Amino acid sequence: MSSTAAPGALHGRRVLELGVSTAAAVTGMLFSDFGADVVLVERPERGQRRRDVPGYAVWDRGKRSVCHPARDRRGRAWLARALAAADVCILAPNESLAAYGDRVVNAAEANHRLVVLEMPAYLAEGSPWLGDEESEAMLSAHTGVSWRQASQDGAPVDFVVPYLSHIQGVWAAACALAALVERERSGRGQHVTVTGVNAVMEASSYTLAVSPDAPDLDTAVGVLGRHPTYRAVRAADAWLACGALGPKFERAVLEVLGIADILDDPRLAGTTTNMVLPENVEWVMERVSAAFRCRPRDVWLRELEQRGVPAGPVGSRDDWLDHPQVAANDLRVDVQDADRGTVAMPGVPLRFGRSPARVAGAAPPLGEHNDHPSWPPRESAAPAGPSAPSPGPLHGMRILDMGTFVATPYAGFLLAELGADVVKIEPTTGDPFRDAGFVFNRGMRSLAVDLRAEAGRRLVQRVCDGADALIGGMRPGVMAALGLDHAHLSTSNPDLVSVSLSAYGVCGPMADRGGVDMVVQAMSGMMSAQGDLELPIATTIAIIDVTAAALCALGVVAALLHRECSGAGQQVSASLVGAASLLESGDLVRFPGRAPTVRSGPDFKGPGPLDRYYPVSDGWVRLQSRDPRLTVDDVLGSAPGDPVDRMRTSLADLDAREAIALLARFGIPAVRARRISEAVSDPRLRSAEFVHLRTATDGSTFATTGRHATFSRTQRSGPMSPPGIGEHTTAVLSEAGVDESDIRAALADGVVAEGGPVAMQLRAVYR
Question: Which of 228, 361, 556, 690 is the least crowded, having the fewest Cβ atoms under 10 Å away?
Answer without folding.
Answer: 361
